[in-house]
Amino acid sequence: METTNKDQKIIDLGKAFHALWAKKWLFLKVWIVTFILSCIWILPQPRYYTSEVKLAPEMNGEDVGGGLSSIASSFGFNIGGIGGQDAIYPELYPDLFESPEFIVGLYDIQVTTKDGELTTNYFDYMKNHQKDNPLTRPYYKMSRAIKSLFEEKDNVPRGNGSADINPFRMNKKDYKLMKTVMENISCAVDKKTSVITISVMDQDPVICATMADSVKSHLQEFIIRYRTSKVSEDVVHYQQMRDDAEKEYDVVMRAYGRYCDTHTNVILQSFQSERDKLEGELALKQNSLTAMETQLQATKVKLQEKTPAFTTLKSATVPIRPAGPKRMLFVLGMLILASVVTAGYILQKNPHKEPSE
């Protein structure tokens, strides 16, 4: 039988247990200190809440290709290009939540806190009314003071809402605030069912539910505006053409009426020729008006068909319990970590190993 020259050792669990038990008072001291420090740290941390909204987009004939794309995506294939002419399909909705234009559009939403003492827009709420851990304030103030010594002066003025903020070029503080909002608002799409889940996290439960419902409406308006933009322009165009055709028809009809009224009982050939000319022109204007009216109605029907519908599967509700931070789990985790570190320290100072056979 081959033997190796490696010095293999095994731990004597019995002796290790006795060594740890002998230091039980050290463990007790470590647990007390860890518990106190953990509570001091975690208790001032502001609570946060989450609220969810679930939507199911309308599936029409043009979405058949998109459905096939969803089936294929579950097997790892991407055939999204066959799903008609829609360039923004549900799988891309989460990317909209990373768009500065989309996030800035949420800033003017009016929110009210749970106690009713504050009513303002979402931008002002996120900018001036966020709670923080008082233990971290000195650190952040010092950090900002040090950074300000090396940073260049920002010449872009700060905004007070969506109307004052240019998504193309933002103030550094506005950009940081936008990134915070992006972290608080998320969107996920089930590739198999295309169900859209919008989740919002906030320190106030009422504002959390308000923003979840508002983000849902904002997303719906954005998608409707995108899908119907071309047809909406066509409706405006044909409405203008229809109005112009009606004005031209009214002008010719009044001219024809005046001519007939001023030439009553006239049988001259020149009168009959002019009357026939006006009648022909009136018929042309009437046909043009009828055609424009028909085209306008057809475009309105197309606009209605293009307007997507969303079914709300789960509405926003005010959360009762906070989603975090998990204070008990945090303290328990710190106690376990402290126990492991303490045990490792004790066993390292008092190794209880013996050579293996």
Structural commentary:
The chain is an alpha+beta fold. It has three domains: 9-45 and 325-357, no CATH class; 49-228 and 309-322; 234-305. Helices cover 56% and strands 11% of the residues. It contains eleven helices and eight strands. It has helices spanning 13-22, 24-42, 64-73, 93-96, 100-104, 122-128, 137-150, 172-184, 205-262, 269-306, 327-349, and strands spanning 9-11, 49-57, 110-112, 119-121, 185-189, 196-202, 310-314, 353-355. The strands form three sheets. Strands 5-6-2-7 form a four-stranded antiparallel β-sheet. Strands 1-8 form a two-stranded antiparallel sheet. β3 (110-112) and β4 (119-121) form a beta hairpin. It is elongated. The two termini are 14 Å apart. The model is unreliable at 1-8, 63-68, 71-84 and 353-357 (pLDDT under 50).
**What's the mean pLDDT score?**
82
The share of residues in helices is 55-70%
Our Rg estimate from Cα atoms comes to 36 Å
The biggest beta sheet reads:
4 strands, antiparallel
Count of discrete alpha- or pi-helical segments spanning 4 or more residues: 11
Low-pLDDT windows of residues: 1-8, 63-68, 71-84, 353-357
Strand line-up across the major sheet: 5-6-2-7
What is the overall silhouette?
elongated
For the termini, the CA-CA separation is 14 Å
Order of helices and strands: EHHEHHHEEHHHEEHHEHE
The count of strands amounts to: 8
Number of domains: 3
Instruction: Give the amount of beta strand, in percent.
Output: 5-15%
* Helix and strand composition category: alpha+beta
Indicate the multimeric state.
single chain
